[in-house]
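Example 3.2
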Amino acid sequence: MGQEWQGVEQAKLSGNVIVSELIRNMELGRFEMAYSVLLPCVFTIYLNPQDYAALRGVFDLVVEDARRALRARAAELSSSTIAKFGKRKGTAKEHKIACREWSLEFLPEPEVPAGDVEIHSELSEVIQPGFRGTRTTLIGREPALAERTRVRQGAEHSVTNGARPVYAVILYEDEAGKQTYHITQNQVRIGRGGEEEPVDLMLRASDEISRQHLLIQREPATGGFSVLDGSTNGTWINGKRLSKGTAQALPRRAEIRLGEVLTLTFEVRL
């Protein structure tokens, strides 16, 4: 995850770079719906403490400029992107946000290299369970901050339910980049999701992935896991296709392939 920039290690971090990275993160974090596209509107921007100190006095100006740039890019996307079903009707797909305004917060973080910027974004101020958000970096590296607790409007939201035990992890890479999902509950619904088809782990991928593709369940008494395929295009465990609608035992470590487009690496931790 992250874009390769020639000589970025020697470059001085500027407002233009931060704004361009915010726009890139926003575009990577798009959530497609039938007639519109939801864009991330909550951004946490992590800077190396030296860069943070150097730019602290102009953060308000950077935020003002960034909001103007994000609004302009959203309007541009709305005018140029045509809905999947709207092509026949000639209507544009609207790009919008769930917040009243884009929210941007700057934080210092020693794990971020000098000259780099790490951006975490969410679709709304209330982080949805199982939704990992979008994380990008300027330099071509993995995000340094895998987990972060945020406090907004007096309420605390944790991306990973960090106080709960992690029974297993799922590693995968979808259209938003490389992700890690911590299983802290006894049932995990996995798929693209939808208004009438909620999921715990939402995958950003083509419609070859079903809205509710599969279900992973944990038996509390034994700690064992099982998987139930409910998809249109199939699910494979370590190369063997599952029978749809029939629960099967899930090994402690397994490669779970969804259709022909995405693979999850599952591993039991407890």
